[in-house]
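Q: What does the assembled structure look like for these inputs?
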Amino acid sequence: MHQPHGTDFETRLDQLRREAREKGRVGDAGTHAAGGPMPNPSSSNNAFGYFGLPFLKPPVWEWMIPVYFFIGGIAGMSGLVAVGALIKNEFDLARVAMWSAAIGAIISIILLTADLGRPMRFIYMLRVFKYQSPMSLGSWILSAFSTFAVPGLVFTEWQIHSSIPIVHALAIIGIIGSAVFGVFLATYTGALIGVTTIPAWNAHRAILPFHFGMAGLGAAVAIPILLGFPEPALSSIFFFAAGAETLVQIYLTFRRHGAVDAALHHGKPGWVMRIGETFSGPLPLILAGLNVWFPAAIIFLLGALLARFGWLAAGRTSACDPESLLASERGAQPAAESKVPYVINPSIASFGSMNKSQR
Amino acid sequence: MIGEGIHSSNQRRHTYVEDEVPVGFFTDPTLCIGCKACEVACKEWNHVPADNIGWTGHSYDNTTTLGASTWRHVMFLEQPKQRGHQIAGTLNNGDHDPSRWLFLSDVCKHCETAGCLESCPTGAIVRTETEAVFVQNEVCNGCGYCVVSCPFGVIDRRDAKLPDKGGAFKCTFCYDRQASGLTPACAKVCPTESIRFGPLADMREEAANRVRQLQRDGYDDAQLYDPVDTSVKGIHALFLLLGKPEDYKLPPHPEVPTLYLKAAYGSMIATAIAAAAFALCAFAFM
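A:
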């Protein structure tokens, strides 16, 4: 139930006055207990819990966070592509991948800082290390990744014009370090939203890191594909990532959790998710199969970005939906207590008859 | 208890912080009269800014929820149920239509295992000597991860338009008052001692006695809300409830999100290894 603000509440007051004039009484949410002036908070109007108000707080994150999930995924997995390119002595591909990694790392830090309530205190993220907090772990992973990726790019560019052996060694260390921390940078974001109290997110805690990681991997190879690198490994990785994303979409579509993850399938977030997942899964898979690589890569990037926005929007909806939380908590209980639709006070009827017999 | 006057643990000075005694609230809706003095006292003492409250139209509750600028929230519930053994009058048509009007002052639960504390990446959220969960405003950088980690939807980030913008805020258990031997402002001001404050063990005992007393008096659905059998492992703000927890916007089985770490980290490590293995093999052999 939304709470009116500002001039809205005058309008609401007028509505209530009109209702009172016409019907002789006001019933916001439907039934009245004991014919009283107040609506019953829990059993009226199919409202769940207390007037249908949210049990949880929705995430405060804005557009920067889904964009960061997308950019961080590309940057992280680009480190891996750079190592692969080194194996094959494809120095141009390694350079492109390191540019993605380093620029992505810098943009990621800017996005995360901008989303903080107090951006000047970004460095406080590194005050402590807590493995039990994915946010803390992620801050350290991003810091470590940037420490390797940015100098890694500098040394990779420098070693082209230089014959100093240490520069070559440092470039290789930078590239390998970017790959090691990069694979975790691209996947921890799934754990970040999976390890929360929001039902639609924590129901998929095991699939989210895989989902985000595969989207990052596909997006990371989409960039050199767009730049026209004719490397067969890139196309096979693209097939792998798009195939994995297709499986994730099939899983999410068919293995539903009822009210718990309804937000992923219904309304606006549901559509953003559906379009995003189709664009980063089956559609690029078909296009790549038809050997039209340019549109396949573009659509994959677009889909991966959209799906991140879909997850955030679905999280907001799920947190504000008391039914989602109650269904999620019922899942943790013995099956005997599972009742849909949820009955808040099933004993009302029998209680009434008992009173009559007392009189 | 009522009748103890200045000897009540709500009124006398104490040394719980120095002695490191775990403390707790016990909030009893059967005694609450819905005056909202606790909300006001909390705002006044802690300099909490006004929140932009509107007109809900569904009850006298226009506060609706706890948040960054609301650390006590009085709920108004009307339930179609009899008040204990008391028999109300009949309606005009002869029907008996029982009703009870309840108020409950909600507050941060100060969990034994707190989702916000576990998830805070800056270490801004700490546990005090009295086992309360406390947010250090000077350290919080406003990342917002505690907001999605609280199983009770209590903590929130403060709006950019308000003083101290961008930080996460919730009930401090009046740490400053407690450190000087005073009772938290809400408990001190509560005119019916519906909000009780004291050592947690005493509060648990008092709550159990009150539940027994009410059940004896015909409140057959009186129960204590203290989720000790979940991953939260108990709370420092006990609530007596008439009816189900969800009627009071309290989750029946709150879980701390750290419960999900194993599956999420397992998937993260497996994905990282699988991606690296596939990508490197692709480059090496294709």
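Chain A touches chain B through 109 residues (CB under 8 Å).
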